[in-house]
Design brief:
The chain is α/β, with parallel strands linked by helices. It is built from eight helices and 21 strands. A hairpin with a 3-residue loop joins strand 15 and strand 16.
């Protein structure tokens, strides 16, 4: 079994236990309270939602700006940024680690992309690998590399309150149609031990002659919650499920200083519990119930073991998203 924290850290953890253990106890109590809060809030949101008049899109192209795996000549990173183009417009979803790491700026330049090319920015959730880095998380600011800032403010659709310099921030509270003809589920909640109460929105689009695209940032709310909301918003079948699902079972991405951070934080479990194959079994059941024709998976928060299990555990055609690649739905 892979160690999540290097033994080199163990003496320090032992020495800090008089402080660490009470902190973990308090944190766990809040974590448990937030589980109940998230469940109540998601149930209420899904019950209050209704069918959206989703426009039928002639086509939808996804260009991957930041991902864990990348085409030759592009930089990889444990974050994500995706460009969605439709016959009705364009959206940028997430900005990876923003200016803190070179992937977004490098890949955008190589692709000839600038935020002036889109109608809006959408942030799936306020975590460092989606909102522009650790500084952004600490200060509650979405941070975009300066060279990519729009020449005039455009909307930035957020699942929770945050600042967004260079943009017009809009906090999404309910499902709605976005520029480009895509839609957001509105915020869906999850209790995370380290990150606390987390709101994440998921993109939904109706593709002509195919059905729905459902696209996540990390999928923190869980597939059951996401699909329950999707079924409320549309009675069309899910053709494509894409994005991150957060299953770092055998390993995490972007491990640093002897710590496999993704296997500890963001899993929806306390740090002394692992995310397991049994958890993945539940997700596979949800996927197979919805029977999508295609999976377009992010590897930024899903280990290779989990990617392999998902690919072979469903009937859907599976693609692993690559930075620098464009996919047509």
């Amino acid at each position: 079994m892979t160690l999540r924290i290097s033994p080199l850290w163990w003496p320090g953890l032992a020495l800090s236990s008089p402080v660490l253990v009470p902190w973990l106890y308090k944190r766990n109590r809040l974590f448990r309270q937030n589980i109940e809060k998230a469940d109540r809030l998601n149930h209420k949101r899904i019950n209050e939602a209704s069918l959206l008049d989703l426009p039928e899109l002639e086509y939808l192209d996804i260009t991957v700006l930041v991902e864990w795996y990348a085409k030759d000549g592009f930089l990889s990173d444990a974050g994500v940024s995706y460009l969605f183009k439709t016959n009705m417009g364009a959206l940028l979803m997430d900005v990876g680690f923003g200016p803190e790491r070179p992937a977004l700026s490098h890949n955008a330049e190589k692709l000839g992309f600038h935020i002036d090319h889109v109608d809006a920015l959408v942030i799936s959730h306020l975590h460092p690998d989606h909102m522009g880095g650790l500084k952004g998380r600490k200060t509650n600011h979405v941070i975009v590399p300066e060279a990519l800032l729009p020449s005039a403010p455009i909307p930035c659709f957020l699942p929770d309150h945050a600042q967004c310099q260079g943009f017009e921030p809009h906090v999404v509270s309910t499902p709605m149609i976005l520029p480009s003809g895509m839609a957001t589920t509105g915020p869906l909640a999850r209790s995370l031990f380290m990150f606390g109460f987390t709101e994440e929105q998921v993109l939904v689009a109706r593709i002509k002659d195919k059905g729905l695209l459902v696209f996540t940032g990390c999928g923190h709310p869980g597939l059951k919650t996401i699909f329950d909301m999707t079924r409320t918003l549309s009675d069309l079948p899910v053709h494509t499920l894409g994005g991150g699902l957060h299953f770092p079972i055998s390993d995490g991405r972007g491990n640093r200083i002897g710590i496999r951070f993704q296997t500890i934080i963001g899993t929806g479990k306390p740090p002394w519990q692992r995310i397991t194959d049994q958890d993945l079994d539940q997700a596979l059941t949800e996927i197979n119930t919805m029977q999508p024709k295609q999976l377009m998976l992010s590897a930024h928060d899903v280990c290779d073991h989990s990617l392999d299990r998902i690919e072979h555990g469903t009937q859907a055609h599976t693609k692993i998203l690559l930075a620098g690649e464009t996919y047509r739905i």
